[in-house]
Each structure stands twice: as C-alpha cells, then as structure tokens.
Amino acid sequence: MELIGSVSEYIIPFLVVLTILVFVHELGHYLVARLCGVKIEAFSFGFGPELFGVTDSTGTRWKVSLVPLGGYVKMFGDANAASMPGEEVAGMTAAERAVSFHHKSLGARIAIVAAGPIANFLFAIVVLAGLFSVYGQPYTPPEVGIVQDGSAAEAAGILPGDRVVEIDGETIDRFEDIQRIVRMAPGEPLELVVVRDGRALALDAVPVATSFTDRFGNQHAIGLLGIGRSGVEYRRHDPFTAIWQAGEETVILIVGTLEALGQIITGVRGTEDLGGPLRIAQMSGEVAQTGLVSLIWFVAILSINLGLINLFPIPLLDGGHLLFYVIEGIRGKPLGERAQEYGFRIGLALVLTLMLFATWNDLVQLRVVEFFRELVS
Q1: Above 80 in pLDDT, residue 237?
Q2: Residue among 78, 121, 82 at smallest CA distance from 101
Q3: Do 191 and 167 meet the contact criterion of CB atoms below 8 Å apart?
C-alpha cells in the first residue's frame, strides 16, 4: 500500500509534468521542421524500445517508448535521436534531399533546432498569462513592514514604512524584486535607495549569508536582510497585460537561473542545489499536493529551465547543434564528420556526467545514501 501511495503521489505527477514539457519541446521542433518541408520519421515520448504507437498519413510514427525520461523527434536523414547525420545522407536522391533535415539551408536548420527551447519559453508565458488572468499575479508593494532586531536591515538604517525603489541601480517594483536580488547576494554589499517621508535616501546593506532547508529537504545558501513585507495581494490582469507580465516573469526566472548557475560555477553557491530526476519527481508530488495553482507555477518554471538547459552550448543538446551551425556560418562550410562525432561524444560524456552527479545529489538530499549507510553500519 505504501508503494502504491508513492506511485500516485510522486511518480504519476512527475510523469505527467515531464510528458507535457517534453511534448511541448519536441512539438516546437516538429512544427517548424514540417514548415520547412522536412519529413518526420518518428515522434517519440521516451527513449529505447517502442511500447506502442501509430503511424499517421504523412509517415510519422507517433510512439511511446520504454524509458519515459524525455523524448525526441527523428527527422529524415538522422542516424539517431541526437540528430547525427546517417551514412545514407551523402547518397540521397534529389527527392530525398528535398525532405532531409541535413540538406536544408543553415537558416532553416537553426530555426528547427531553436524551436524546441523557444516552444518551452512560449509555453511558460502562456501558462503564466492564463494564471495571471484567472487567479492573479502575486504582487507585494516594495514597502518594508517589519525590521528584525539585530538584522542587516537594522544595521543599514532601514525603518518600517520605507519604500525600496532601487537596489544597485535596478528599479524595484514589488517586494518580490527585493527578495530576488537579496537572496542571490549573500554577504555581498548592496546599495539601496529608499523613500522615507517623501525623501530618497541611499543606504548600504550587506545581506547575511543564511543556510536553510526548504520543505523538500534541500539546503540552500541565501542572503537575508531581515525585513518583512507590508502585505500581499493578487492582481488579475487583462489578457494583453497578463502576457506582458508573464513575459517579464519568464525573463526574471531565466536571469535568476543563470545567476544561480554562475554562483555555483564560481563557488558562491554549493553544488547541492543541482537536482536530477529523483528530486524533480519528489517536488512534482509535493507541489501537486499543495494545489493546482502551485502545480501550474511549477510546470512553468520547469518549462523555462528545460528550454534554458537545452540552449547550453553542449554537443548533443540543442545549444550544441546551434554552436556547430554558428561555426558553419563563420567557416562557410560545416565541421568535418570526425570533428562533429568527437563533439557529440564529448557532449554525451558531459551530459551523462551531469546526470550522474545530479542523481547522486538527489540520493544524498533525499537521504537514500544515509539510509543504506545505516543498513551496513
């Protein structure tokens, strides 16, 4: 019974969320490829052997495969799911070259490859816009409600009622902007501009580096000023405003993710924040239990992260293909087959290493490693 509960609470929400995001990503590739006249041989949910599927009138095999961790679109001329050119590409007839991905113009190939990540970003904007129209966008005026005793804010001279309008030159529109900037700057000096009694004051504050454990059991190092908001509200927008706000929110999430990644690379943040499929499964189940609104937010955030990760210039990912196309544009001809092959091997090694590392992080954070240590000790 416990196993059945775990499947229904964690695995099913995870697979539903993953299937939606993979479908959106691959649909982007599929639609633009069809628009460019490329023949699609297969649209697969998952990897490995096919479990079941159906072939449509255009010859595309829509299938569900054994390993449900991702998916791919196989275009005519591809040797595999990574879109490596097959040996038959060189000997294609004129009719076959007309529908082959690898014989399309450089611009068409760039558009097809970029369409997957772009689809994820657009999907997140649509999802968030719908949420902001129906439920409302969380909004908190950037006004200080409380200042904790002995906090960084008190040391900086911040008082209740102060309205923060700028941090390090960045305009502040809501309290969430303060949180976003401060959390990403543990122990780093920040210059704040606050409005008090109608006058603008410049204050210097250093967020305290604080480690905390979230409700999923993950530890994070963040910066805290020690201030509280004055109140929170949800603002419903008309469709056009909702789309604009959703676009801004998407950009903010992308920038925040890149900043966090940069901090991990430079050592400011720990690598324990990197999560893999196990932690995503856990979070999917936990978020699904908190309500539909939280789950919608979670899907949008994952969609943005999926699109962003795929744009990293690593061979095997979409960004790696785009990197090769940029080089092709500069050289005036594609890289040699051997260079591309070695590139994809390196990319595969990097991706597998990252997956193994993230999965190990998951096992540690979920205390699976600790559990087995206790069994043998």
Answers
A1: yes
A2: 78
A3: yes
Long-range contacts from 172-180, C-beta under 8 angstroms, 24+ separation = 172/142, 173/142, 174/139, 174/140, 174/141, 174/142, 175/140, 175/141, 175/142, 175/143, 175/229, 175/230, 175/232, 176/138, 176/140, 177/142, 178/142, 178/225, 178/227, 180/252, 180/256
**Which one is predicted more confidently, 161 or 345?**
161
Residues that are catalytic: 26
Residue 110: Cβ-neighbour burial (10 angstroms; 0-12, 13-18, 19+): middle
Q: Are 67 and 150 in contact (CB under 8 A)?
A: no
Delimit the domains of the chain by residue range.
2-36+104-134+292-376, 138-233
* CATH of region 138-233, choose from 2.60.40.10, 2.30.42.10, 3.40.50.11690, 1.20.1070.10: 2.30.42.10
Please give the pLDDT value at position 284. Answer: 56
Could you tell me the pLDDT band of residue 11, with boundaries at 50, 70 and 90? Answer: confident
Distance CA 259, CA 37 (A): 39
